[in-house]
Amino acid sequence: MNWASTEHHRFKDHVNEANTFTRRVALALLLVFILFCILIYRFYSLQVVHYENYVTLSDRNRIQVRPVPPNRGLIYDRNGELLAENRPSFTLSLVKERVRDMDGTIARLSELVDISESDKENFFKYLKQRRRPFEPVALRYRLDEEEMARLAVNKFDLKGVEVNAELVRYYPKGELYAHIVGYVGRINESELNSFDEETDKLYRGTHSIGKIGLEKHYESQLLGTVGVEYIETNAHGRALRTIDEVEPQAGQDLHLHIDSVMQQAGADALAGRRGAMVAIDIATGGVLAMVSTPSFDPNLFVTGISVKNYRALNESRNLPLFNRTIQGQYPPGSTLKPVLGLGGLEAQIISTDTRIRDPGFYQLENDDRQYREWKKGGHGSTVGLHEAIVESCDIFFYDLAFRMGVDRMHEFGTHFGLGEKTDIDIPSERAGIWPSRQWKRAARGQAWYPGNSLNMSIGQGDVLATPLQLAVMTATLARRGTRMQPSLVASIGDKTIEPKVVDQMQASEVNWEFVKQSMSDVVNNIHGTAHSLGRLLDYKIAGKTGTAQVVGIAQGEEYESEALAEFHRDHTLFVAFGPVKNPTLALAVIVENGEKHGDTDFPVVKAVFDAYFAQEKVRQANMQAQPAVQEAQQ
Question: Which of 334, 453, 487, 518 is catalytic?
Fold first, then answer.
C-alpha cells in the first residue's frame, strides 16, 4: 500500500456516506410514492369521478349522431292526382372538415362527373352559410348510375366525398301549378339567421324550405318531424354500422279543391297570353281552378336555380314569376256594374223602372268635361238598369254614382270583398283598392270629387281588384249575399277544413232576381255584350263583360288599337256564374291587352265551364251507380 491510498482510506467517512445514501433512497421512494398517489388519484378521477363525461366524449369520437330528415307531405288535387311528390335522388356532397384541398377535390370530381359552374356557385354559397360541423354540403344532385359507378371506383382517392340517397321534391305538372303549389328551395342564410333554437332542430338534416305558394303557407304541416340515427364510425369517419335509430315522422298530405281537368282547360285556353282565371265552388268557397299565365317550371328552383335561368325569368317582360291571380291589381271595368246596380236598388235611389237619357256622354253641373259612353251615340233615347247591365251602358251608372255618392258605393262594395284581402291560403296576396273619401285623403292628400265617383262606377279611376277578388265578388252575387272564405286546401291529413262564411248581406229577393236575370241576358240575350259566347254554349250561364283602359285617352280623341303598342291596349275581363237556375260555379277571367272579348276571354270561359260540367256529369253518374254497386256486393 502506498502513501496516497493510505491517506485516502484514512479520511473516508463511511457513516456520512451511508446517511447520504439513505436520505437519497428515502427521497426517491417518497417521490415514487407521490407519483403513485397521483396516478391512483388520476385513475380514480377518470374511472369513477368523471366516468360519464369521458365515456360520452369517447362515444362521440366513435359514434356520430345523424339527423334523419322526414318525408315531406304530398299534395293532391281533388281527384287524387299528385301535384307535388318526393323522388329518390343520389346526391354528391363534400364534408368540409375532411377535405384537405377543396379546389383540388372539386377539380378531381369534375373529371369523373358533370359539374356545372352553377353547381359550383351554389356549393360555395351554401358552404359559407352557418352549419353544423361535419355536415355534408351538396355539390351535385340527381347522379345517374354511370356517374355513381365512377365515383365508387375512385372512392379511395376522394377523402371527405360522400354520395347519399335522399328524397328531392318534384312537381310532375310543372308550369301548370307553379303559382298555386309553389316550390321548395335550399334554406338560405337569411332564413337560417331567423331560426330560433327550436326551429333549427326541426330542420336538422333538411336542406329545403317552402318558398312560395302552398309549400310556404303550409310549411309546418308539410315538413314533418326529424328522426335520429346513431352511427358507429372508424378513425377515418367512415360509417361502420347503425347502433340505434329514432324514426322520423312524415309531413301531412294536402288534398286540394283544385280540379286538374279544369286547371288544364283554363291554362290551354290562356296559352300564349298574359292573363289569369279563377274558378270558385259557390257553395264552399273552394277554388277549383286558378291559372296565371305565363308560368314557369318550379323544378328549376328545388336544388338551386342557375343565374342564367333566374335572370331569364326575372327580366322577362311577360313576368312569368308574377302570380296574377292574387298579385295582379287591375281596373275591374264594367264587371262592377251588377253590384252597384243592386246597391242602387237597395238604397232606393233607383228602381227597376228608372230610365235616363243617353246621348252618348254625361256632364256634371258647372263642369265642361264630358264623361263619354263607350258606344258612340249612346244606347238609345232612354236606358234602364236592365239595358245598362246587358248592354253595359256607362251613362246610366255615371248618373247612379252621382246620386248614390262614394260613401254608399264604398260601404256596399265592401260586402262583396272589394278593397280587402280574401285571406286565401297562399302568401303574397294584394288587397286591391276600393276607394273612399278617407282613402283618397290619406293616399293622395286630396278631397273626393263627384267626378271620382263617376269613374269608380265603371271600375276605372283609382279602383283596382285582383282576379281572385272578382271571382269572390261574383260568387257572392250568385249566392245572394253570402260571402265565403276562398280556400285551396280541402283537407290536411285526415282533417277536413270546414267552409267559412265571412260576410252575410241582406237584400230583397226581387232585386237579387232582377240582377241575376240581367246578368243572364248579358250572355243569352241578342243585345247582350256576351251574346256571341252564349251561342256557343249548350247550357246557360250569367255574366258581365268588362274592359279596362291601360293608358288614358284625351277628351275628344278615340281609341285606336293600331296606334298603340300591344302592352298599351285595353284589358278584357269577364265574370260569370252558372248554371243560371242553380249556380254552383263562379269565375273571373282577365286577359291583359286582350282588346276583343270573342278572341280572348270568351274562349277561356267556355273551356272552363265545359270542363266543369263534364266533370259534374261524371260525378253524378258515379254517385248514381254507387247504390247499385253496393247492392250487388251485398
Answer: 334
Instruction: For residue 335, give the C-alpha cell.
Output: 264587371
- CA neighbours closer than 13 Å in the CB half-sphere of residue 377: 1
Q: How many Cβ atoms sit within 10 Å of the Cβ of residue 309?
A: 14
Q: d(Cα 335, Cα 546) in Å, to the nearest integer? A: 5
**Residue 278, SS3?**
strand
pTM assigned to the model: 0.84
As a 3-state breakdown, the chain gives helix, strand, coil percent values, each rounded to 5, of 45, 20, 35
Q: What are phi and psi of 477, to 5 degrees?
A: -60, -45
- pLDDT for position 51: 67
361, 377 Cβ separation under 8 angstroms: no
Place of cell 242602387: 344
The cell numbers describing 3, all together, are: 502513501
User: What is the percentage of the chain residues whose pLDDT exceeds 90?
Assistant: 56
CB 574 within 8 A of CB 589: yes
Residue 149 has which C-alpha cell?
Answer: 359507378
Q: What is the pLDDT of residue 1?
A: 47
Residue 185, all three cell numbers:
328551395
Cβ-Cβ contacts under 8 Å for 566 (sequence gap 6 or more): 593
pLDDT by residue (tens digit) across 410-448?
999 999 999 999 999 999 999 999 999 999 999 999 999
User: In this structure, is the dihedral angle defined by the CA atoms of residues 97, 102, 107 and 110, taken in order, positive or negative?
Assistant: positive
Q: What is the DSSP string of 390-442?
A: HTT-HHHHHHHHHHHHHHHHHHHHHTTTTTS----SSS-----B---HHHHHH
Residues 400, 96: Cα–Cα separation, whole Å: 72
Closest by Cα among 301, 258, 300 to 277: 258
SS3 readout for 522-533: HHHCCCCCCHHH
The confidence score (pLDDT) of residue 53 equals 60
Q: Which residue type, as a one-letter code, is found at position 126?
A: Y
- State the cell numbers at 356: 235616363
**pLDDT below 70 — which residues of the chain?**
1-12, 50-63, 131-132, 233-240, 551-563, 626-634
Residue with cell 337569411: 190
388: which residues sit within 8 A by CB, 6+ positions away? 337, 341, 379, 396, 397
Residues 352 and 517: their CA atoms lie apart, in Å, by 12
Residue with cell 331567423: 194
CA separation for the pair 380, 395 (Å, rounded) = 11
Under DSSP, is residue 73 helix (H, G, I), strand (E, B) or coil? Answer: coil
Query: Which DSSP string do the residues of 361-381 spell out, in sequence order?
Result: EE--TT----EE-SSTT-SEE
All structural domains of the chain: 65-256 (3.90.1310.10), 260-295+317-600 (3.40.710.10)
Active site residue 334: yes
Beta strands 254-256 and 75-76, pairing class? parallel
Q: How many CB atoms lie within 10 A of CB 151?
A: 20
Nearest Cα neighbor of 413 from 395, 432, 392 is 432
Can you give the three-state secondary structure of 190-232, one letter per residue?
Answer: HHHHHCCHHHHHHCCCCCEEEEEHHHHHCHHHHHCECEEEEEE
Q: Grid coordinates standing for 225?
A: 318531424
Q: 89 φ, ψ to 5°?
A: -145, 145
Q: Beta partners for 590?
A: 276, 573
Please list, in sequence order, all residues whose beta carbon lies within 8 angstroms of the beta carbon of residue 517, skipping any fewer than 6 positions away. Answer: 386
